[in-house]
Design brief:
The complex is a heterodimer of chains A (331) and B (508).
Chain A: H1 18-24, H2 32-35, H3 82-105, H4 114-123, H5 127-144, H6 149-175, H7 181-192, H8 197-206, H9 212-241, H10 247-250, H11 252-275, H12 277-306, H13 310-327
Chain B: H1 10-18, H2 30-33, H3 58-81, H4 94-121, H5 125-153, H6 162-168, H7 173-183, H8 187-202, H9 204-216, H10 220-250, H11 254-283, H12 291-310, H13 321-326, H14 331-342, E1 349-350, H15 355-365, H16 367-385, E2 409-410, E3 413-417, E4 420-424, E5 427-431, H17 434-442, H18 444-447, H19 453-458, H20 467-474, E6 482-483, H21 488-499
Parallel strand pairs in B: 1-6
Antiparallel strand pairs in B: 2-3, 4-5
Helix pairs in contact in B: 3-5, 3-10, 4-5, 4-6, 4-7, 5-10, 8-10, 8-11, 9-10, 9-11, 11-14, 11-17, 15-16
The complex binds fe (ii) ion (FE2) (2 copies).
Chain lengths: 331, 508
């Protein structure tokens, strides 16, 4: 039966769920983001140890050396829950769809100089495998991370990287007039060309890191912090400068996506570093351990693109990364 | 000038988009990169034989899902603004939604994480991407459900403390232990348990009672997210079937392993659904169909037809399915009788069915109902009239595997209780059925770890050794629990009805 009440004597008993109220404080009205981000991951009272990792519980705070009073503090400043995430990305994909269709219809990429096209082919297309590696690593954080918000944002980050890899595939197929050979060739370069080997080795090394926060720092802060600007800014600019303006249309998403992802990466690392001196030291140590390797891995790529200017470009990029690093308390 | 592009069909395009992305690692061994996908004994010779069930690229996914979310949240906003909780059939119905929130929503979250493990864990890229899509879908489900139930939580009891009781309440160990059993198993067992045994074989028995039940009972919030999730679910079902075929086609040595999983997860899923069936028979003031009828349609007809189809892979129907069929006349009544007596230790309300409902049960369940269960309800109703509403003083003994109170009866004797015992390392473990006992005996090391709330309580690990202390530890107040008639929910509901000039319902 349907009750029809004209007067408004419908008294609310409470504002939100206890787990949310406990986190926000009584009387606060949560946003939709907050309402689903606190205390949803189970923290204790497990039935069985995983047969695949009997040392730990299914969700276990000890899968990283980072210690937090409350891992739910590792929130996403973009306030993405599933709904806002897919709606934002759908707008961006709509814009990308338009860009791709203009570029395809008017043959804009093919109108570029043959040298430029070859450069794009050699730099961008094999890079799809690095994006796939980033997908893999962020799924690791989504799977084995701890707390409610962190695995969720990592899952978005992982799916974004699948999207990136697929956009690159699409660029490749435009360049080759849908001849898949361009992808096979890029893959064999990724596997064998000396230019890619230091990066591939580093990516594979990252696949066996067991500490998810270390992996977060390496993948989303260091690797992305060097490679995304190198490929989608410096290389992009280089192509545009030499008459490949249309190239910027098919990479627009990468630039926007990265600027946005940085906010999440920086905020989560800053929060963890700010929690304790131990965390700060641990993070700084990981950075010192991995940053030289990341620069090393990016160097052959930079040399191919910029030849004599490569050291300057890597220097500029790492200065920017150091500046970010200082801002988030890594020193 | 551009040459004319080659034509690619959708399948080719999709394969190029995703398949070629992965590579055989050489700087680290594949076994170190994917350490978990071999120890269960499933042999995969060629991961490229995996048939992608979704063929979805990321940009298409963003687009479709965003369209669904825009519609869903527009409806949820309207629902709250219009106080649409007033449109439900009766406040007793809310207990069905509480069961969903307390028991199912947390599993959606756990499924998000579990499928992320698979999305990282399988060495085949196609399987990995399929699991990634399911993972993010499951994240969607827990979030849309919380957002949908948020409005009910403002008015009704039983929602607010779900995150606390999910891990601690005895009756919520039933769904929780089910999912934890799956996620602590290896990746192939997890995907078999959830994607095939649950999503493919048994899902109609979850979806139909809850979502159709919601639609029948005026619950637009649940109906909306339920139907919106349906297109996600159909992807998940396809994945479930694909994974079974894939394992069986890869190596004949996989058959006995898969068969054992199907036996186990059929039984575990069936036991879990006993709770759902009870909800559908007892908590829906407007009935969709009885559990008995649902079982006949969705298992005896569709389920068996599916297993006939699968016979060509060498699979047989799961063990003890005939026991489940024998139990169709009694399981929901045995369950309700139990919850009725123990509901003062839950965040639910229970009640004696109305006269009309008892007659519906007689029609649906026949003689057994009239001779065994109706007299119990009449007896309890009599006690209630005398002001002696019947509650048990202690918590029930529960099955060491399915965690359901040991109330089930012998397959061929509905009056004889069934309790089987296995001894492991000097300790006795009680099981509700041969199905559960087989599961225990196959992996005693796993099931002897089970967290059994009633035992924990009496050992004093849950705030104290009394029911009162236990309730406090659960953050459940007296007014949120026990008998429905006279409860806060009931009084609020009658108040709303009185305001609108409709006559109040008399207690049974
Ligand atoms: Fe789901
Ligand atoms: Fe059992």
């Amino acid at each position: 039966m349907s009750i029809d009440i004209k007067t408004t004597k419908i008294e609310q008993r409470r504002i939100t769920f206890d787990n949310v109220a406990e986190k926000l404080g009584e009387g606060k009205i949560p946003s939709r983001y907050q309402e689903v981000m606190y205390g949803v991951q189970q923290q204790d009272v497990f039935h069985y140890r995983p047969t695949w990792d009997p040392e730990h519980e299914v969700f276990d705070a000890d899968r990283t050396d980072i210690k937090m009073q409350d891992f739910d503090d590792l929130t996403d400043p973009r306030h993405y829950y599933y709904g806002t995430y897919v709606i934002q990305r759908s707008k961006q994909q709509e814009a990308m769809e338009k860009n791709f269709s203009v570029v395809e219809k008017r043959g804009l990429l093919h109108a570029m100089d043959g040298d430029l096209i070859e450069k794009i082919r050699k730099v961008i297309i094999p890079f799809r495998h690095a994006e796939w590696g980033a997908n893999n690593n962020n799924l690791f954080i989504a799977a084995y991370g701890f707390g409610t918000p962190m695995p969720i944002a990592a899952d978005f980050q992982g799916m974004d990287r699948l999207g990136n890899a697929q956009y690159i595939t699409r660029i490749g197929l435009i360049l080759s007039n849908n001849d898949p050979e361009i992808l096979d060739r890029a893959k064999s370069e990724w596997l064998d060309d000396p230019m890619w080997q230091p990066l591939r080795k580093l990516v594979e090394d990252s696949f066996v890191i067991k500490d998810w926060f270390e992996l977060h720092l390496l993948q989303n802060f260091l690797l992305d912090g060097v490679l995304q600007p190198l490929v989608f800014q410096y290389f992009d600019d280089e192509i545009v400068k030499h008459g490949g303006a249309s190239f910027a249309m098919v990479t627009e998403f990468f630039v926007e996506w990265f600027a946005e992802a940085v906010r999440w990466t920086d905020h989560t690392i800053k929060t963890a570093a700010g929690e304790s001196a131990e965390n700060q030291a641990l993070l700084a140590g990981w950075k010192d351990k991995w940053l030289p390797e990341v620069k090393n891995a990016a160097m052959p790529l930079a040399e191919y693109i910029f030849a004599g200017r490569s050291a300057d470009v890597i220097g500029e990029i790492s200065n920017r990364l150091e500046a970010r690093s200082g801002k988030i308390g890594l020193g | 000038m551009a040459a004319k592009p080659r034509r690619l069909n959708l399948t080719q395009k999709y394969q190029l988009m995703t398949r070629g992305l992965d590579w055989e690692t050489t700087y680290q061994s594949m076994d170190d990169v994917f350490p978990y996908d071999k120890y269960e004994g499933i042999k995969i010779k060629d991961w490229d034989k995996w048939q992608d069930p979704f063929r979805l690229t990321m940009d298409a996914y963003w687009k479709y899902q965003a369209e669904k979310e825009r519609k869903l949240y527009a409806i949820l906003d309207g629902f709250a603004q219009n106080n649409s909780q007033l449109n439900i059939s009766d406040a007793r119905y809310m207990n069905a939604v509480k069961i969903w929130m307390q028991g199912v929503t947390p599993l959606e979250y756990a499924a998000f994480r579990g499928f992320a493990m698979l999305g990282r864990g399988f060495r085949g890229a196609g399987a990995r991407v399929a699991c990634q899509f399911q993972s993010i879908d499951e994240m969607r489900h827990y979030q849309t459900q919380m957002h949908a139930f948020s409005h009910y939580n403002k008015y009704f009891n039983g929602f607010r403390q779900f995150a606390r009781i999910r891990d601690r309440a005895w009756y919520l160990s039933i769904p929780k232990s089910y999912f934890e059993d799956a996620v602590t198993a290896g990746p192939f067992e997890l995907i078999t348990a959830i994607s095939f045994s649950f999503e493919y074989v048994l899902t109609n028995l979850l979806f139909m009672p809850f979502v159709s039940g919601a639609a029948y009972n005026g619950d637009m919030a649940t109906t909306t997210f339920g139907f919106s999730a349906q297109s996600d679910e159909s992807r998940h079902m396809t994945l479930g079937l694909e994974v079974i075929k894939f394992m069986l086609e890869q190596d004949e040595g996989n058959l006995p392993i898969v068969q054992q999983w199907l036996d186990k997860w059929f039984w575990r899923g069936y036991r879990l659904l006993g709770l759902v069936g009870t909800m559908m028979d007892y908590m829906l003031p407007k009935k969709v169909m009885s559990w008995r009828q649902a079982w006949e349609i969705y298992w005896e007809e569709s389920g068996m037809a599916l297993f006939n189809d699968l016979a060509r892979y060498g699979l047989r129907p799961p063990k003890y399915h005939e026991v489940a069929t024998k139990e169709k006349y009694r399981i929901t009544h045995e369950f309700w009788c139990t919850i009725y007596q123990f509901s003062h230790a839950t965040a639910l309300y229970t009640w004696i069915p109305t006269e009309e409902e008892l007659d519906w049960f007689s029609a649906e369940y026949g003689e057994l109902f009239d001779t065994v269960y109706r007299p119990r309800y009449e007896y309890w109703a009599e006690l209630d009239r005398k002001g002696e509403r019947f509650f048990q003083k202690r918590l029930p003994v529960v099955c060491n595997v399915c965690q359901i109170p040991i109330f089930h009866t012998m397959p061929d004797d509905p009056l004889m209780n069934c309790c089987l015992v296995s001894e492991y390392k000097g300790t006795k473990h009680q099981m509700c059925s041969q199905g559960c006992k087989d599961i225990f005996d196959h992996e005693p090391e796993k099931y002897c770890q089970a967290y059994i709330p009633p035992q924990q309580i009496y050992q004093g690990n849950c705030g104290g050794a009394t029911l009162e202390a236990y309730k406090e530890w659960l953050h459940i107040k007296d007014e949120e629990t026990g008998e429905y008639y006279g409860s806060e929910d009931h009084i609020m509901w009658e108040g709303w009805k009185a305001q609108s000039g409709k006559p109040a319902d008399a207690p049974a």
